Amino acid sequence: MFHPFVIYLSQKGTLTNSELEHIEQASVQKKLRKGQYLLEEGTVSNFVGFVVKGSFRLFRVADDGTEHIMKFAIENWWISDFTSFMSSRPSQCYIEALENSELIWFSKEKWEQLLATIPTFKQIIEELTARNFEAHQNRIFSNISESAEERYDNFVRQYPTLYNRVPLYMIASFLGLTRETLSRVRKQAVKKPA
Predict the structure, then answer these.
(1) 142 is a domain residue
(2) Tens digits of per-residue pLDDT, 35-90?
(3) Which residues have CB under 8 Å from 152's CB, separation 6+?
(4) In angstroms, how far is CA 100 from the centroid of its own chain?
(5) Of 103, 131, 146, 183, whose CB count within 10 A is highest?
(6) Which domain holds residue 51?
(7) For every residue of 27-39, which 3-state class applies, written as one string?
(8) Which helix (H) or strand (E) holds 64?
């Protein structure tokens, strides 16, 4: 299970065999069944996970019981509640496996040791963190400035493999739309000439 992670890291930077062995020794391989929770509200997110296989959603539940999906994660993506992870405060989120999934999992203690002892790994993570921050800013801007049609089109274009793996009501939640609005937008998209 660790080999896909080695391939991923080698695409991001140059790590020695010794450093890769150190990273592997710090990791835990986890398997989750569809519907199983990796994190529940009220617990501290004391881990970072790299998705080897499967998919996850990170979501919050509003006072009225409505679920708001903040992030999806599929193969070669990272998953954690990074706010809780960095602050060590209880999470306001849930992380659920949407499919039978496999993760390379790092505890906070091991993660911090890796960042402190392997400069190349730290550089890789800093670059990924910067890109993740940019993506979140772009998503916020999209949600406040684009029409439902534009958000849907962008989602399908940016995440074509995810689109076919996630139920439509979850896509609606992620886009900040009602199911009815997403259904209308999808019908209009099908009628558009190519």
Answers:
(1) no
(2) 999 999 999 999 999 999 999 999 999 999 999 999 999 999 999 999 999 999 99
(3) 175, 177, 182, 185, 186, 189
(4) 15
(5) 103
(6) 3-114
(7) CEEEEECCCCEEE
(8) none
Q: Do residues 46 and 87 lie in contact, with contact meaning Cβ atoms separated by under 8 Å?
A: no
Q: Structure pTM?
A: 0.90
Residue 114 pairs in a beta bridge with none
Q: Is residue 14 part of a domain?
A: yes
CATH number, domain of 58, equals 2.60.120.10
Q: Residues for the chain: how many in total? A: 194
Q: Which residues pair with 67 in a beta bridge?
A: 61
In this structure, what token pair is assigned to residue 45? 């997110």
Helices then strands, counting H and E runs in the chain, come out as 9, 8
Query: What is the band of 194 on the pLDDT scale with cuts at 50, 70, 90?
Result: low
What is the enclosing helix (H) or strand (E) of 45?
Answer: none
Q: Are 2 and 104 in contact (CB under 8 A)?
A: yes
Looking at the DSSP assignment, which residues form a beta bridge with residue 50?
78, 104
Is residue 174 assigned to a domain?
no
Residue 121 placed within a domain: no
Q: What is d(CA 159, CA 74) in angstroms, rounded to the nearest whole number?
A: 10
- Domain tally for the chain? 1
